[in-house]
Design a protein that fits this description.
With about 325 residues, the chain is mostly beta strands. It is built from 2 helices and 23 strands. Strands 1-2-3-4 form a 4-stranded antiparallel β-sheet, with no helix packed on it. Strands 5-6-7-8 form a 4-stranded antiparallel β-sheet, with no helix packed on it. A 4-stranded antiparallel β-sheet has the order 9-10-11-12, with no helix packed on it. The structure holds beta-D-galactopyranose. The site of beta-D-galactopyranose has 10 residues, from strand 5 and strand 13.
């Protein structure tokens, strides 16, 4: 009996040790606390109190194909993530969508301190009945907004619409240091992307703040030491390309020319931008590039390329992704040899 108990204890301890991560390993399988590869693709992160919440496209094999799923993970240290279940399970959100090939992509959640609501934006797309030539067209080109009174959901869809009345595909999220919230969206007809401020309750996209006249998607913005840095990728679908960066002293611009943020031949180390995480610690501020390394033949197995960037004085550069760790209290990170 004693031996059995000891064995059980040992197993529990070693399981715990295996499950605990002390690093972020870009491009590798990233197990959550249950040991499953994290399903939060094209994701977004917010911090509330001492918890980070990571929302993203849940593409686990075996999901009911009548629905689209958004996952919610939480973490205290950005390295160990607990799956909190499906934050949203969405059925076809609009009756004009022609078939069951519609998509929900790049979900992003904002927390509104005034209304105490969590507000999710997502890219909704698909072919339109009687209009689209291809059944897999991305012609709907809109966003969905869903709300929940808990971070982990369940989120309920409120509406779908086109932000500022415009075609919108990839979306990004930006929350400035003063708490103001913005939706970034790519707009094909005008070959560019918008940074647009959300209304006070975050339920609508209220005001165009900037229009950047370059066909870029996967838009992400970070505010660091008085400068805004905007990053985007070219429109090459799931295939990676050299993502680019520009800066401005005000979100409204003027924005500098877009330049490479990594050696162009690496195609952003085979990844596409989705967001930046700014970790402000007691000793340092670290800005982390969050990118997706998509695997279109098995989207659930797409990997995450997270890496602290070299940033400052108008330069933002992504070093070669290698295993690293971070202390979110001090804000300091280090490479792991
Ligand atoms: C990419 C986009 C992804 C997804 C994909 C579909 O350009 O960034 O979010 O929409 O195209 O081909």
């Amino acid at each position: 009996m004693k031996t059995l108990l000891l064995t059980l204890c040992f197993c529990a301890i070693s399981f715990y040790t295996i499950a605990q991560q002390n690093s972020i390993r870009p491009g590798e399988v990233w197990p959550d606390a249950d040991g499953n590869h994290i399903q939060a693709h094209g994701g977004g992160i917010i911090k509330l109190g001492n918890l980070y919440y990571w929302y993203g496209e849940e593409r686990r094999p075996g999901l009911d194909t009548n629905f689209r799923y958004v996952s919610c993970y939480s973490s205290k240290d950005l390295m160990n993530w607990k799956f909190n279940g499906d934050a949203m399970v969405l059925s076809k959100p609009d009756s004009t969508l022609a078939n069951n090939r519609w998509v929900l992509e790049r979900p992003k959640v904002f927390y509104n301190a005034k209304t105490k609501q969590y507000v999710m934006y997502m890219h909704i797309d698909g072919a339109i009945k009687g209009v689209s030539k291809s059944p897999s067209a991305y012609d709907f080109a809109g966003v969905g907004v869903a709300v929940s009174d808990k971070a982990t959901g369940p989120f309920k869809l409120v509406k779908t619409f086109r932000p500022l009345g415009k075609e919108s595909r990839d979306i990004g999220q930006f929350i400035d240091d003063d708490g103001s919230a913005y939706l970034i969206f790519e707009c094909r007809p005008v070959k560019g992307f918008y940074i647009a401020q959300l209304s006070d309750d975050f339920l609508s996209v209220e005001k165009e703040v900037a229009f950047i006249n370059l066909p870029l998607e996967g838009g992400a913005v970070v505010h660091y030491k008085g400068l805004y840095y905007a990053v985007g990728s070219k429109l090459t679908g799931w295939s990676p390309n050299p993502n680019k960066v520009a800066t401005a002293t005000s979100l409204a611009g003027p924005w500098t020319e877009f330049v490479n943020m990594a050696p162009p031949e690496t195609n952003t180390y085979n990844s596409q931008s989705t967001m930046f995480i700014k970790v402000v610690g007691s000793k340092d501020t670290t800005v982390i590039y969050m990118g997706d390394r998509w695997k279109p033949s098995a989207l659930h197995d797409s990997r995450y390329i997270w890496m602290p960037v070299e940033i400052g004085a108008g330069k933002l550069w992504l070093p070669e992704p290698k295993p690293w760790s971070i202390n979110v209290k001090t804000g300091k990170w280090k490479k792991i040899e």
